[in-house]
Amino acid sequence: MLSTIWDFLVTLQLFNQSDMKTIVLPVTVFALALASYHSVSRFFLVVFWVWMHLLYFTVTNQTFGTSPEEDAVNKPNRPIPAKRISIDSAITLGWFIAPIDLALSLYTGGAPAGIAICILTSIYCRGGGHSHWLSKNGCCAGFYALFEYGATQIADSSEKLNQNQIGAIIGSALIIFTTIHAQDFRDDEGDALLGRRTFTLSFPVFSRISMPMLLTAWSIALYLFSEANQSVLPALLVIGAVTGIRFLTLKSAKDDRLSYLYYNIWLSMAHVGLSSLNLQRLAAWYQ
C-alpha cells in the first residue's frame, strides 16, 4: 500500500520535475521577495499552490496532441513515455486536479490567478497557443505573470497588490517573453523531427545572437533601476553575459542543457532584482 502511494507521488513529481527550477523555484523566490508579510505557513501555501497549479498544466500539456510522441524524443523520463501512467489515466488525473486547484485557490486567496491559469492552459494546449513561437512565448509570459500574481497574493495575504508589486510582475513577464526561447535550444532535434515552429528553429542564427544581447541588456536595466543588494546586481551582469556567450558559442544539446541551467540561475537572480525595482527612478529616466 505504502509503496503504491509512494509510486503515485513519484509519478506526480515527474510530471512537474523539468519545471521545478523554471517555475516553482523562481516564482516562490519572487513572491516571497515581493511580499511585505512573511510566515512559515504562508511559505508552504505558496509552494503547494504553485506546485499544484503547475501540475494541472503539465498533466494537460503532456497528454495533449503530439506531446507524448515529442516527450518520447526529448524527455523520455516523463511519466507517459516512461510507461508509469497511460494517456487515458493521465487525462482522467487532469480532470481530478482541476477542482482541487479551484478549491485550493479559493482557500488561499489566489482564485483569480488560479482560474486564469486553467483558462490559459486550455488556450495553450487546445487553442493552438503552443504551435507558433510568438503565441508560445506570449503564453509563457502570461503563465509566469499569473503564477507570480497568485503566489504574491497568497504570500502577502492580500486581495490587491500595490504598484511596485504589479510593476515587478509586468517586468518579469517582459523578460520571459523576450528570453524564454532559452529553453528551446536543447530540444531542437526533437522539435525539428516533429515540425514545430519554435523561435530557435525559425531563426537559428538570430536566436543564438539574441541571447547575450538580451540577457546583458536586461541585466544592465536591473542594475540601473533596482535597489537590490549591490552584490546581487554585479553577479547578475556576470552570469547574464556568461550564459549568453555560452548559448552563442556552445551549440551541442548537452551544452544547451547546461546553458539552460545557467539561464535559470540568472532568471532567479533577475527576479530578486525585480523585487526591488524602483519605479520612481524608472519613471524619472523616461521623463
From TrEMBL:
Lipid bilayer topology? Multi-pass membrane protein
Family matches, as InterPro entries: Prenyltransferase_related, UbiA_prenyltransferase, UbiA_sf
Q: Which residue ranges does UniProt annotate as crossing the membrane?
A: 20-36, 43-59, 104-125, 205-225, 231-248, 260-279
- Identify the keywords attached in UniProt to this record, alphabetized: Membrane, Transmembrane, Transmembrane helix
A Pfam family it matches: UbiA
CDD domains given in the database record: PT_UbiA_3
Assigned GO CC terms: membrane
Per UniProt, subcellular location reads as: Membrane
From which domain of life does this come? Answer: Eukaryota
GO MF, one example: transferase activity, transferring alkyl or aryl (other than methyl) groups
Predominantly, its location class is membrane
Q: What PANTHER family does this protein's entry cite?
A: CHLOROPHYLL SYNTHASE, CHLOROPHYLL SYNTHASE, CHLOROPLASTIC
Q: What is this protein called?
A: UbiA prenyltransferase family
Q: Which organism is it from?
A: Lentinula aciculospora
